Amino acid sequence: MPQPPVQPTPRPETPAEAWQLLAEGNRRFVTSTSSHPNQDAFHRSRLASAQNPYAVIFGCSDSRLAAEIIFDVGLGDVFVVRTAGQVIDDAVLGSLEYSVSVLKTPLIVILGHDSCGAVTAAVEAFHSGQMPRGFVRDLVERITPSVIAARRQNVKDVNGTVTEHVKQTASRLADSSKIISDALDAGALAIAGVTYSLADGAVSLVSGLGSLTSEEQDSEHD
């Protein structure tokens, strides 16, 4: 007999609910208990006519940083934008604005990771004064402001600079896009800056714009 269709995961509507769902998925991934939700044939067919993701993940292109896997989500759950070193350009901004204004995603996740090659290249270029050739130079130039910001805080190592780059990227999104800043001001959107550990698979929240906790959680800490 055919198996009954698996019910899709309910879509969170608030930034806090979206972040909680992603954090829970990452905990399952870390503990090797991934549930691989929303990946069955019924769900695939159901999504053919429209998508309704609850988060957009803007992360590094590194092959070890597959967002759907490390957050244990399925088809239609997250809108993913990736560039080396998660650098921002016009196409990235347009993609993120689309996710916020058209798809109404309540959460943007900036996803960096340790030992990032693009950030390493920027740190080395800053130290040596020698810029890489080709379009890799463009990546380095876009990351260099984060390297400078890290140095002002006496942070010189790659992983510390990755953390600063995630924070700077989140701030720049809010500064560069009126669509994103307006959604933040309205409480309809939050930005979570996270770093990912390649060794253990865990994500760590390093910055946040907007509310990433529910009113119930906030009241528990009052």
Automatic annotation (TrEMBL):
<feature type="binding site">
    <location>
        <position position="113"/>
    </location>
    <ligand>
        <name>Zn(2+)</name>
    </ligand>
</feature>
<dbReference type="InterPro" id="IPR001765">
    <property type="entry name" value="Carbonic_anhydrase"/>
</dbReference>
<dbReference type="GO" id="GO:0004089">
    <property type="term" value="F:carbonate dehydratase activity"/>
</dbReference>
<feature type="binding site">
    <location>
        <position position="62"/>
    </location>
    <ligand>
        <name>Zn(2+)</name>
    </ligand>
</feature>
<keyword id="KW-0862">Zinc</keyword>
<comment type="similarity">
    <text>Belongs to the beta-class carbonic anhydrase family.</text>
</comment>
<keyword id="KW-0479">Metal-binding</keyword>
<feature type="binding site">
    <location>
        <position position="116"/>
    </location>
    <ligand>
        <name>Zn(2+)</name>
    </ligand>
</feature>
<dbReference type="Pfam" id="PF00484">
    <property type="entry name" value="Pro_CA"/>
</dbReference>
<dbReference type="InterPro" id="IPR015892">
    <property type="entry name" value="Carbonic_anhydrase_CS"/>
</dbReference>
<dbReference type="GO" id="GO:0015976">
    <property type="term" value="P:carbon utilization"/>
</dbReference>
<protein>
    <recommendedName>
        <fullName>carbonic anhydrase</fullName>
        <ecNumber>4.2.1.1</ecNumber>
    </recommendedName>
</protein>
<keyword id="KW-0456">Lyase</keyword>
<feature type="binding site">
    <location>
        <position position="60"/>
    </location>
    <ligand>
        <name>Zn(2+)</name>
    </ligand>
</feature>
<comment type="function">
    <text>Catalyzes the reversible hydration of carbon dioxide to form bicarbonate.</text>
</comment>
<dbReference type="GO" id="GO:0008270">
    <property type="term" value="F:zinc ion binding"/>
</dbReference>
<dbReference type="InterPro" id="IPR036874">
    <property type="entry name" value="Carbonic_anhydrase_sf"/>
</dbReference>
